[in-house]
Design brief:
The chain is an alpha/beta fold. The protein is built from twelve helices and 18 strands. The strands form five sheets. The protein has an eight-stranded mixed sheet, sandwiched between helices. A four-stranded antiparallel sheet has the order 5-4-9-6. Strands 2-3 form a two-stranded antiparallel ribbon. The protein starts with 9 loop residues before the first helix and ends with a strand. The protein binds zinc ion.
């Protein structure tokens, strides 16, 4: 088993990044919400890459303390000024309508209209993303610099939406491994035209699942694409009896920009996925993830890590949500996410999963004193090159901690060296007969 075999070289990572970007670009124009046709249209596109089981939960279904809302249908929306001129059109950008807006057809003065117009005065050139879930409200979102040009007069509001008894939909894909124990990989599917949050996560996970098709893994991998909060809760409720199978999990969002990476630990904070995420490096500059302790705010890891479940699920992002100016605005577009960043995020996820799959325990077969590495061709007498010295340090760490009680992940943590470097050193030491493989460690 080698998860990283599907894109080992930098050129492979770049190609994968291009493929993920192309898929994200197809998902981007769709107006998604927590229910409605946009989710189904998105699932149909993901289905071109992977098999998906679609689950539909009727409106009104009680999901723990929540109730699945009526399905939201949006056909269009516009705002016309006193001259009949269309000044906003849903067809131009789906962020122009407050997501889950109730229908409205009325003429009103600018003064009456203004409480329903949402802008970002600090970012006057972008359209904000606003939602009105679980409430009855209507509104438009627009550029602040356009708002300031509006003149007094009667405006014509037309929001052609409906809330009807329908369904919430989510989709899942299972990659069967050698055991039934599962790794849960989750992305939210409810945001409209926002590229990083979260077309990037949906596309990356679909491409990952597709790339794993012919790879034999130890764990089974469950990919879930569901609307934020109510979708993960519905999934948890329907799968509660089998949650004991989930050994590790990751929520993915905002994986297409060049920031970070950022990893938020599970509620437990000490699980193997938390430890693995700390031992990977990102991109050509080998950037370590910035690690954040769990807080009960964020994406769907909040539900997985609620005390009634307390699953070992972390959150992986490049730039953390809410910290970049494009977040929840029209500037989170297809130019903001780049193939090279999607490619390095893909590799990062692969590397984390590779640790879960391949963390073995080495035993030093020559533990009395340091072996003379030069005799095994593992030490250049002409040393001094940085790469060489990193590898030698990795040999020394592996040899010293290979007492049978430390896994490669333990050694990576203790040494502060990347897991990939420690693994490469351990494999080289095994090849020359200096260490033995005591088997995989699942702890
Ligand atoms: Zn969001």
């Amino acid at each position: 088993m080698d998860l990283t075999s599907v894109a080992p070289a930098s050129s492979g990572t770049q190609d994968m990044g291009t493929a993920i970007h192309a898929l994200a670009a197809r998902l981007y124009p769709i107006c998604r919400s927590i229910t409605g046709q946009g989710v189904l249209d998105t699932i149909d596109i993901l289905r071109e890459h992977i098999d998906l089981d679609v689950h539909r939960v009727p409106s009104g279904t009680k999901v723990f303390d929540w109730i699945v809302p009526p399905e939201w249908i949006v056909r269009g929306a516009s705002l016309r000024d006193a001259n009949g001129q269309k000044i906003l059109d849903f067809a131009d950008h789906n962020l122009h309508v407050v997501n889950y807006s109730t229908p409205m057809k009325a003429r009103m003065s600018l003064e009456e209209l203004k409480p329903h117009l949402h802008t970002l005065p600090d970012q006057p050139h972008v359209i904000p993303y606003k939602t009105a879930y679980y409430t009855d409200a209507w509104g438009f979102c627009m550029r602040h610099d356009q708002l300031t040009t509006l003149e007094d007069g009667d405006y014509e509001v037309f929001i052609d939406t409906e809330k009807v008894p329908g369904h919430l939909s989510y989709a899942e894909h299972l990659h069967r491994g050698e055991v039934e124990d599962e790794v849960l990989l989750y992305a939210h599917i409810c945001h409209p035209s926002l590229a990083n949050d979260n077309c990037s996560g949906l596309a990356l996970l679909a491409c990952l699942a597709e790339s794993m098709r012919s790879v034999a893994t130890h764990f089974s991998y469950r990919f879930v694409f569901a609307p934020g909060t109510i979708g993960s809760l519905a999934w948890l409720q329907r799968n509660e009896a089998g949650l004991g199978r989930i050994r590790h999990g990751l929520v993915l969002s905002c994986v297409g920009d060049g920031g970070g990476p950022n990893y938020k630990r599970s509620r437990n904070g000490q699980t193997m996925i938390d430890r693995a995420a700390a031992c990977v490096r990102c991109g050509a500059d080998d950037v370590s993830p910035t690690l954040h302790d769990f807080i009960p705010y964020g994406y769907d890891e909040r539900q997985f890590c609620s005390p009634g479940f307390d699953l070992p699920v972390g959150l992986l992002q490049r730039s953390a949500f809410g910290t970049f100016p494009q977040y929840h605005t029209s500037a989170d577009d297809l130019d903001f996410i780049r193939p090279e960043h999607l490619g390095s995020s893909f590799r990062l996820v692969q590397d984390i999963l590779q640790i879960l799959e391949t963390n073995w325990t080495p035993l030093n077969l020559s533990p009395k004193g340091e072996p003379q590495l030069g005799r095994y061709g593992l030490f250049s007498p002409m040393g001094g090159h940085k790469t060489n010295s990193d590898r030698v340090m990795a040999y020394l760490w592996v040899l010293n901690l290979a007492d049978g009680a430390h896994s490669l992940l333990d050694i990576s943590e203790r040494s502060g060296m990347p897991f990939t470097e420690i693994t490469a050193a351990a494999k080289a030491l095994q090849t020359v007969g200096l260490v033995a493989n005591l088997g995989f460690s699942r702890q």
